[in-house]
Amino acid sequence: MTIGRIAGPMLFSNLERQGLDLSIEGNLIYFDVNRKRIGINTDAPEFDFHIDTSNGDSPVLFVNGNIISNTISVKDAFTLPTDSGSTGQVLASDGAQGTYWADGSSTTIDRKKFSYEIPDLAPNSTHEFVIEIGIASIVYALTVSRPVQVEVFATPTKDEPNPYTFLATLGHLVDDGTVLLSDGSIIQQRQYSIFANQEEPPQPKVYATITEIDGVAGPLTLEMTYFSAVTDNSSKSYNINVVDTLPTVGVEGQSVILKSSSKIYVWYDSQWNATT
Q1: C-alpha span between 66 and 43 (Å, rounded)
Q2: Residues with Cβ < 8 Å from 270, sequence gap 6 or more?
């Protein structure tokens, strides 16, 4: 490489050859000719154009115009799609530091399923358990496999005067909002139920009991279709569930903040995964 003489005063006091490479003021600008790379504040560029800062802060790149690239990465954390996507689409994660455009309706509105099994419910006994489905949820339908009474409470003390109650019979094992009267007529009371936690601060759970009413022991399965994250959040005090301990199970894509570590956990691959 040949450097010609430039008329006028010297622009840099330290312009030197390093083999085939060219260094300006140490590593202020470094031309890695052998690997065809350019470094700013680095003499070992790892990319075609590599910017570091002299004070250790994150480098800032300003571009007045358009950026055209096959791949755009953000701090080795996410790779952004280069196409513009379609109207109504949202940016979604593939779980492996990549992103893609996804249909907004399918990622923001998602009916979920909850299932709970009791291997052997004793005659005339009451079984208590926790339903961990979020701070509040719209329940479209609740189904049990045999006649029982199901109650759902907003607090662990279970002292509400009017909890959600479903009295299942052999001919009516699905709570679809209808009530069968003694004369055979049906009253449609509602389309859905709302399960909501009333603790302070709010917890992503409600408290349920199942009471055996037929006097016969045996297994029981409860299944529920619901839509989670219906919250009273007018004060904007929270955006996602905050928990003291991670729930035993979650739903795909559900996010919670663990108080003890202040980390966000996302449920996928059948487990809670901490985000970095």
Answers
A1: 28
A2: none
pLDDT in tens, 37-57: 988 888 888 888 888 887 777
Query: How far, in Å, CA of 122 to CA of 145, rounded?
Result: 15
Report how far apart, in Å, the C-alpha atoms of 107 and of each of 89, 91, 93, 96, 101 are: 9, 10, 11, 18, 11
Record: fold of 112-237: Jelly Rolls (2.60.120)
The residue among 166 and 177 whose pLDDT is bigger is: 166
Domain ranges of the chain: 1-63, 72-81+88-105, 112-237, 240-276
